[in-house]
Amino acid sequence: MNTRDFEYFLELTDTRNFSQTAEKFAVSQPTITAAIKRLEDHFQAQLIIRDRRHHEISVTPAGEQLASHAAIILHQLDLAKQDIAWDQKSKIRFGLPPIIGSYLFPKIAVDLIAAGLMPQLETFEAGSAALLDQIKDGNLDFALLGASGPLVDPDLHVIQIDTAPFVIITAENDPLARQTHVPFATLADRQFITLSEGFVHTRAFSWFQQQHTFTPKVVYRTSDVLLLKRLVTQNVGIGFLTKVAIQPDDHLASLKIDDPKQPAFTISFVYRQDRVLTPTMNRFAQILSTPKVV
């Protein structure tokens, strides 16, 4: 039995067709038949039922069971191949969402330089949802991820390193700027500029919307945080951002939202549970996990 047999078997359970499976792998149909026979002999169970009269096949319960485990095995082997290849390059693949990168990376850069880790670092910028997928697929070693609450995932080491509230932002000359806090319910008549789908903010904004009987008037959505803030500065609308995204030189007013039990923006340092860390990666993880980065 070899891993190629698993690949043939999984494809066959998907296509339910020996000819199509053989064509995909550029092998003969008897090659696929022999692979299935080897698996059935090894596991001492019938995996496939062939209905030659109707030219159909079906997967037995034992076959469904094997398919589930084979998919995990092949995924783990693919992760191992990627991890070993990157370990030999002595590189650290690090994912950073734009907001978290601007807020947190300057705080850790000095320590990374002092530890001699900066030359080994390859950073990738994307939203937290996309970076989470890349972590799980083995395309990244580490990431800082934002979430609208504690991040929980059994496949990941998750170290929460900071939290911040979501706030309403306005231009400094907006009448709301004279306030320090505001109930979300009083914003029914205001126009909003928000971040696009895929950002953590979208989920948090939906939470506030669901607590009230009105639908906020969103006049523009963007994936560019800087553009959002510029539009707010020009009084195009008010914005909804995490507090960590607001800098003094933005010349914006930020207002605390009064609603109780609201979600908070959490920042977590994550990597896969099954990722074996090299000494270089361990040094990097220690720097990112220390409380002084907050």
TrEMBL record:
Q: Which SUPFAM superfamilies match?
A: Periplasmic binding protein-like II, Winged helix' DNA-binding domain
UniProt keywords (A-Z) are: DNA-binding, Transcription, Transcription regulation
Signal peptide residues are: none
Cellular component GO terms, alphabetical? cytosol
Q: What are the recorded GO MF terms, alphabetically? A: DNA binding; DNA-binding transcription factor activity
- What's a Pfam family in this record? LysR_substrate
**Mind telling me which InterPro entries this protein's record contains?**
HTH-type_LysR_regulators (IPR050950), LysR_HTH_N (IPR000847), LysR_subst-bd (IPR005119), WH-like_DNA-bd_sf (IPR036388), WH_DNA-bd_sf (IPR036390)
In what residue span(s) does the HTH lysR-type domain sit?
A: 1-58
Q: Mind telling me which PANTHER family this protein's record contains? A: HTH-TYPE TRANSCRIPTIONAL REGULATOR YBHD
Family per record? Belongs to the LysR transcriptional regulatory family.
Output this protein's name: LysR family transcriptional regulator
What species is this protein from? Lacticaseibacillus zeae (Lactobacillus zeae)
